Amino acid sequence: MFKCDHSTLRLSFNTFNEVKAGNMPEYGEFCLLELKDGRYTGGEWNPREYKSKKSTEGKFIRGTADSVDSSEVSRWHSLERYDLTECLEDEEIGLINLGHKTEEVRSVVFKDFKTFKDGLPKQEQYCLLILKNGGLGSGRWDYWRDKKSGTFIYAPALACYGMEEVWAWTELSTDDIFASEEKAEKERLLEEELNRSPSTDPVKFKYGTDIGVYYEKALEKLRKDYPWASLAQMKKKTQYIITPIHGKYVFGLDNGTFMDSKLVDEWKDGDTADEFVDFLCEYTREAVRDSDPAVKFKFGTDVGPYLEKAFNNVKREYRWLDKKIIDSAWHYDIKQIDGDFEFVSRSSGESDYFVLDCRSAEDFIKYVEHDYQNAALRANPVVSRYEVKFGDIELHGWHLEHYIFFKLKTGDYKVDVQAGDRVTGGNREFFITPYCFEAKTYGEFLDRYLQIVPGYSFGLDKEDLISDVKLKEFLGY
C-alpha cells in the first residue's frame, strides 16, 4: 500500500469556489464544503434546475435523507479531480497541496489521518477519506451489527465506501446527526450505569420481580369467566416484562430492541401490584376470549376436515384445482404448543412450523382458501394477455404502473395490477370468477368485475374500461 506516514500527512485544499459568485460544481460532482458557520462537510451537488450551470439553488447530498442546502454553503472544492497515488508512494511526503496556492487564496488543512488499524470512527461521524485508488471522498460512518466493521455512506440508496476501499480517514466537523448520536450514546451509558443496581417499590412489586407470578395471578382471575384460559393464550398479546428504567424496576411493554437499545413502554396506570394484575386481566382478555377451543376447533383437532372444506370451497370457482396442485401450497396441521392446540403451517420441504393467528375455524379455512387459490393460479398457464392503456393515475400517493388481463389455459381469466412510488411498489393478482362471465352484457360483466377489483382502490373504474373495445373483445364480449 502507500508508503507515506498517514499519521503525519496533511492535505491542504486551496482555491475554493464561492457559491455567491454563482460558480457551482457540475451536476453530481462530489465536493468538500465549507459552511457559512465555518464547519466542513461533503456532498454531491444536486441543483434544483439541473440544466442550469449557474443555478445556486439546490442541495449537496450526503446520503439517504441526508443533505445540506446550498444556502448553508459558503465555498466548495471538488474531491473528484485528484489522484494522489504518486504523492502517497513518497515516504518523505508530509504535505500535499490540492489546488494552486498563492497569496490571499482561501485554504484549509486537514490532518490527524487514521487507518482502520488505529480504530474505527464514531457512529454517524462524517469523515474525509483517502481511498486506496488514490482518490478522495467523504462519507458518514455506519457500524455493522458486529460493531467491529462498517461502511462510509456518501449518497442515496446507501451508496457507500467499504472498509476495503479506504486507506485513511479523518473527522470532518460535527453536524446535527453526529451530535444527536453522541447525545444518545451518553444517555445510553448513563442509563446503563443507573440500571446496575435498580431500586424496587415494595408496594408495586409486593409479589416480587418475576413477571410470571403476575401472569399466573391474572390467569386465576380470567379462568372464572373463561375456563379454557392459559398462559400461552395470554401471551399472544405483546408481553409485559419487569425491567429497570432510570434506576428503578417498572412494569413495561416489551417492544423489542432498536439500535441495541431495549424499547419499553412503561405501565403508568396504577401504583400497586394488584392494580397491575387487574390490568393484565383486561389487557389479555380479548386474546383469551377468542381462543375458545369449542369455537376455534369446532370440527375437531384433526386438520383433515378443515383442509377438505377449504379445497371444496375453492374448487367451486377454480374448477381445474386438484390435489396435486395443492401439494405446492403451504402444508397445514394442528399441533399442541405450550399446552394449547394451534393451527400451524410450514412451507413445502421445510420442517419448521409457524403458528397462525386464526381465532376461529372459519378464519383458518379462509386462510387456507387464499393459499389454494394462489396455487391454482400458479398452475394454470397464461396463453394470451391484454395490457390496458391509461394516463397518470395516482392511488393514495402511489401511481398505477400496469393493469394487465390474462387469459389462462383453461379459458379462465385473471388480472394483475401494479402500483408504486419513487422507492417502493407492489402488485396483486385477482381471479375473475365465472360468475362475472355469466353476465349477459359487457356492462353487467364490468359491474360484477369491479366488485372484485374496485376502481377506487385499483385505479380504473367502469367508465375507464367500458370504452376499451380491444379489452371487450379480449374478454369474449
Descriptive terms for the model:
single chain, 477 residues, five-stranded antiparallel beta sheet, 4 domains, alpha+beta
Task: Write up this protein.
By secondary structure, the chain is an alpha+beta fold. It has 4 domains: 6-176, no CATH class; 211-291, no CATH class; 295-378, no CATH class; 382-474, no CATH class. The protein has 13 helices and 25 strands. It has helices at residues 85-88, 176-194, 211-222, 231-234, 273-289, 293-296, 304-315, 361-378, 434-437, 442-452, 455-458, 462-465, 469-474, and strands at 10-14, 17-18, 30-35, 40-47, 58-63, 66-69, 73-78, 95-98, 107-110, 126-131, 136-143, 150-155, 159-162, 166-171, 240-245, 248-258, 261-266, 331-337, 340-346, 354-355, 382-387, 394-395, 398-408, 413-420, 425-432. A 6-stranded antiparallel sheet has the order 2-7-3-4-5-6, with no helix packed on it. It has a 5-stranded antiparallel sheet with strand order 13-12-11-10-14, with no helix packed on it. Strand 24 and strand 25 (425-432) form a beta hairpin. It is flat.
Task: Give me a quick take on this structure.
25% of the residues lie in helices and 31% in strands.
The unreliable regions are none
Strand-pairing-aware structural class: alpha+beta
Q: Which word captures the global form?
A: flat
Q: Output the strand order for the largest sheet.
A: 2-7-3-4-5-6
Tell me the fraction of residues in β-strands, as a range. 25-35%
Compute the separation of the termini in Å.
Answer: 73 Å
